[in-house]
Amino acid sequence: MSELEIHQTRFDTPEVQKIVADAMAELARRYGGSGDDTPIALTDFDPPLGRFFIAVQDGEPVGCAGWRRHGDDAELKRMFTAEAARGRGVARRILAVIEESAREAGLQRVILETGDQQPEAIALYESRGYQRIEDFGHYRGHAGVLSFARAL
């Protein structure tokens, strides 16, 4: 097994769209519907508005995440690790890259929405020092939404 590589990419690339589709399918299994109806434009992650990253191992995409500007904050979106790559620290490494990228862009915090049916995501965010905040995004006011932030 080769070393994990994480690199910045465009959100509209075929490899990103494939792994994002996998993420949406998993969210649909957990929550029903389409998985996540948050409006996202293909350009939301283009600098200087944001950044998108993909994790690749043995030539295969195994994870992804991006951030987009939300005022002085970086909003984490499309954080996902492929099932076969879970438990190997992929998500933790992607999250560290996201945080560093947002810090370098001069942003103050990383904020995010997740759901109560994603205990592994909640555990990751809490282990990295994220704290609950008032709901802010597309799912504000929906049952089961959990919003978090971490100062950079």
UniProtKB/TrEMBL annotation:
Residues 4-152 form the N-acetyltransferase domain. Keywords: Acyltransferase, Transferase. PROSITE patterns: GNAT. CDD domains: NAT_SF. It holds the Pfam family Acetyltransf_1. One of its GO terms (molecular function) is acyltransferase activity, transferring groups other than amino-acyl groups. It comes from the Bacteria. This is N-acetylglutamate synthase, GNAT family. It comes from Actinoplanes derwentensis.
